[in-house]
Amino acid sequence: MERSVPASVDPGDPFNVTLTLLNEGQASASDVSVSINASSDAITPKTSENYYIPILEPGEEAVLLMAFETDTNAPLGLEPILITVDYRNADLAAFRQVATIGVPIVGRARWVSLPSGPNLPGSPPETKWT
Q1: 71 with 101: CB under 8 angstroms?
Q2: Which InterPro entries match (predicted)?
Q3: Which domain holds residue 98?
Q4: pLDDT tens sequence across 41-64
Q5: CA distances from residue 72 to 8, 25, 37, 57, 68 in whole angstroms, order as listed
Q6: What average pLDDT does the chain have?
Q7: Is residue 114 in some structural domain?
């Protein structure tokens, strides 16, 4: 399973994740189901959280494009998205693969302009010389 995640995401911004499933085995994988679980309220899926692939032949890839959005109050740091892949092999034995995608949520510096001039709140009163 390969994944493509942005290098960083600002709180409140949308982002995309690409998940590539590759059958590296010598037999088909069938009934492939993929579940996406953003483990906190900081990240919300904008696309389906469940995917189904009837069959994945040996050497075949399936690419899933997923869209997410972050909350404007998302905590800074690495936010996890849990990926669970369930499938059956040729003899119908069930298998599960679990992976975590870490989404780096970073802060954004914002320039603050301060007004200038006399009589600003909190400024000492202007002195007049005579």
Answers
A1: no
A2: Ig-like_fold (IPR013783)
A3: 2-105
A4: 899 999 999 999 999 999 999 999
A5: 15, 42, 19, 42, 13
A6: 87
A7: no
Token pair belonging to 113: 């302009």
Are 42 and 94 a contacting pair, CB within 8 Å? Answer: no
User: Given a cut of 70, is residue 109 above it in pLDDT?
Assistant: no
Number of domains in the chain: 1
Residue type at 90?
A
Three-state secondary structure readout of the chain: CEEECCCCECCCCEEEEEEEEECCCCCCEEEEEEEEEECCCCEEECCCCEEEEEEECCCCEEEEEEEEEECCCCCCEEEEEEEEEEEECCCCCEEEEEEEEEEEECCCCCCCCCCCCCCCCCCCCCCCCC
